[in-house]
Write a structure and sequence with these properties.
53% of the residues lie in helices and 4% in strands. By secondary structure, the chain is mainly α. Among the domains are: 146 residues, no CATH class; 130 residues, no CATH class. Strand 3 and strand 4 form a beta hairpin.
Length: 434
């Protein structure tokens, strides 16, 4: 048992990203059994030396190394921890606990994925990490739950294989032409098919998604001019051009099916794909892969939120968190126009003394002043409406000989801050007469 520093650092790095340390002691110290007492002692020395070297600085790996070293200070107090017998006892304890955790994980996987009967390898890996199990133990839990694990090399296209406008038009033409899917357009009435590993017609294994099949169907569509056949011919023309440009029609088919599945629940999405001709097993795998991709995107977003919080970008973190939670209103929310530091609006009650002061919010602090605010707030409840200045000599309103005087000496009852009660009289130093 020799200590491999590079392999150990690769093992420890994911824990540093999560600001945690391995819970399993045998993994934390990279102990493999069986081993002699001398091998155990040499391994402990090498691991502790690695921690001492890496704990310098403020990186995530340094913080993880410091946490491991802190836990190691407690372990070092036990003299038996340097013997192989002590570590063999820890392994037995771990295996016993692992059996219970495998049973617990099997229950969780059944609850989350029983509707589809399959689970992605990425989901199994995340579950193993969250429960401190190895990948082999997590796969055992999946088998115990009766779930098939989708291999990691089975993937879906990341983007439309055709330009977005072209693909959108193709989807509409498929619907207008009465084609349930791309294979149903090229081979009408061919029945159920598989697509994840390549197109396979279950009724006729000799059918292909190629130029010859597209041209043959295009000739059939051209025999009768109708709205349906026009849409089919246009869709076939797009597929022929795509095939000539070496676009894989498997990806075109899969992306169309992904759009059909949408954001529906797994059971509904699976039934939708089966209705469009996809074999049940392939339908379940496609839905599971779509759901796994959406979950991975949310978790990536959570990592970005944590990074923003660590950098002190609280507003950006809050906005991003709102979009991840599906609360678009939270993401669009902006600070209110009213300042939270302003004193609360005074309710009806006894009038304050004549020497009471007004409050004005400067945006950063609340200050007191004996002058009216430069920007008046809304008129208080019950105040008389301000008369509109009219032309001199008008009989419909009171003429103002000096409008500028009205602006210099606003009436408290008409333009005062909403926090100055109307019953309090004019502010100090000002007369109520005009």
């Amino acid at each position: 048992m020799a200590f491999d520093e590079k392999a150990y650092e690769a093992f420890l790095t994911p824990y540093s990203r999560r600001n945690s340390i391995p819970e399993d002691l045998l993994e934390r110290y990279a102990i493999t059994l069986p081993a002699t007492d001398a091998e155990i002692a040499a391994q402990l020395k090498a691991v502790r030396a690695y921690w001492n070297k890496k704990m310098v600085g403020q990186t995530r790996l340094a913080r993880t190394a410091k946490s491991c070293k802190t836990e190691d200070d407690e372990l070092a107090k036990d003299p038996g921890s340097a013997t192989a017998a002590w570590w063999a006892a820890r392994q037995r304890e771990r295996d016993h606990a692992a059996r219970q955790q495998i049973d617990d994980l099997a229950g969780l996987l059944t609850a989350d994925h029983a509707a589809l009967g399959v689970v992605t390898a990425a989901a199994v890996e995340r579950a193993a990490a969250s429960m401190g199990l190895t990948m082999a133990q997590a796969e055992q839990a999946a088998r115990q739950a009766g779930l098939a694990v989708i291999p990691a090399n089975v993937t879906l296209p990341d983007a439309p294989p055709l330009p977005a406008p072209v693909f959108g038009q193709l989807s509409r033409e498929l619907a207008d032409g009465g084609a349930r899917s791309v294979p149903d357009l090229i081979h009408p009435g061919s029945g159920t098919f598989r697509i994840l590993a390549g197109y396979e017609c279950l009724r006729d294994g000799g059918k292909r998604l190629d130029t010859a099949a597209i041209e043959a169907e295009a000739r059939e569509a051209g025999k009768n001019t109708s709205r349906v056949n026009t849409a089919r011919a246009a869709a076939l023309h797009k597929l022929k051009d795509a095939y000539a440009k070496h676009v894989d029609l498997r990806d075109v088919t899969l992306f169309h099916l992904m759009e059909l599945a949408g954001d529906a629940s797994p059971a509904i999405a699976k039934a939708t794909l089966e209705k469009h001709g996809v074999e049940a097993g392939d339908a379940a795998r496609i839905v599971a892969l779509v759901a796994g991709r959406a979950k991975a995107a949310r978790e990536s977003g959570l990592d970005r939120v944590r990074a923003l919080l660590e950098n002190g970008q609280l507003g950006e973190a809050r906005s991003l968190a709102g979009t991840l939670a599906g609360d678009q209103e939270m993401a669009r929310r902006r600070p209110s126009s009213s300042c939270a530091r302003c004193p609360p609006r005074r309710r009806a009650g006894p009038a304050p003394p004549a020497t009471a002061r007004r409050f004005r919010c400067s945006g950063n602090a609340v200050t007191a002043t004996t002058k009216p605010p430069s920007t008046p707030c809304a008129a208080p409840r019950g105040a008389r409406p301000r008369r509109t200045p009219t032309a001199r000599g008008s009989t419909t309103g009171r003429a103002l000989s000096a409008p500028t005087r009205e602006r210099r000496s606003p009436s408290p009852s008409s333009t005062a801050c909403s926090r100055w009660p109307a019953t309090a009289g004019p502010p100090p130093g000002r007369s109520s007469s005009r």
